[in-house]
Amino acid sequence: MAQRTGARTSSARPAARDARASRGTGGPTRSAARSRPDDRGGAGRPEPRPPARVRARRWFVGLDPWRRALVVLGALAVVAVVAAAVVALTRDAGEPAEGLAVDPARVAELEAAEEARDAENLVASIDHAQHLQTELVPVLHGLHAVLPVDGSTAVPADPAQVATWRADVDALVAETEALASGSSEHNIVRNGMLTSLELVGDALDAVALAADAAPEAAPDLYALAGELRTRAVDTWGLAAVQLDLRATAGGQGHVHVFLPVHPGDSLDGGLDVPGEDSHDH
User: Tens digits of per-residue pLDDT, 164-178?
Assistant: First the structure.
């Protein structure tokens, strides 16, 4: 019995070897089949991409040494910036009192300097307004002779005289532009006087044009000149009121620098019509 079993076993081994040999000659081995890409997942299917970590490693290794050094330095710089930002934010969060600290002495010093500057601007604006008033009186009186306030017929002006008045007004405009700016109250005075001077200049230009215009166009130009003069006086009046308020509040007393448009004007900032009690605004 034992002999027959051993015989069958010994005879089966060659048969198994022959079968394996025949399978090997008849087609690819199992290991070879696993190595062929066409047998995995079907014909034509692309081979799966390697993980992102592997791709990044292959990209970095493929760089030349100089570029690899630049990449490393760039990464270190980014890390340093992020670390500095974190440290700064942590420090600010841990010390809020020092970041918001206010020095009362410094605040008082700045306020005192601002008050001193405003006081200087007040004195300068008073002196400048009085200077402008003195220089503008002859111009306005001469303009009244050409263009009477009462609405009577205009008298053609001497072109040379108008040119002289215009040059005087231009000089006053330049002086006013050079006046230092300051607080809102101060700037109202400064800009009001400046606008008034510019309107006077425009009125003189209209008078000069009327003198050379055709007879049918001259009346409209004289009417325009009169309107510009009225606007100039009204604008000056607003600046003068503001200056008077600033002067009284600043201990300088009342300051009256209204524009007299013609001889005998009441100096109250309006356009007094000679022989009438009312104002023509």
Answer: 999 999 999 999 999
Residue-range domain boundaries for the chain? 123-249
Map tokens 């900032």 to a residue.
Answer: 269
Write the CB contacts of 210 (distance below 8 Å, at least 6 apart in sequence). 154, 156, 217, 218, 221, 222, 225
The mean predicted confidence, pLDDT, of the chain is 77
**Using an 8 Å Cβ cutoff, are 139 and 169 in contact?**
yes
Of residues 262, 13, 33, the one with CA closest to residue 142:
262
pTM for this structure?
0.60
- Structure confidence by residue, pLDDT tens digits, 98-128: 556 788 888 888 888 888 899 999 999 999 9
- DSSP H helices, the chain, are 2-26, 30-35, 52-62, 65-94, 96-99, 104-146, 159-177, 184-212, 218-249
CA–CA gap between residue 140 and residue 262 (Å, rounded): 7
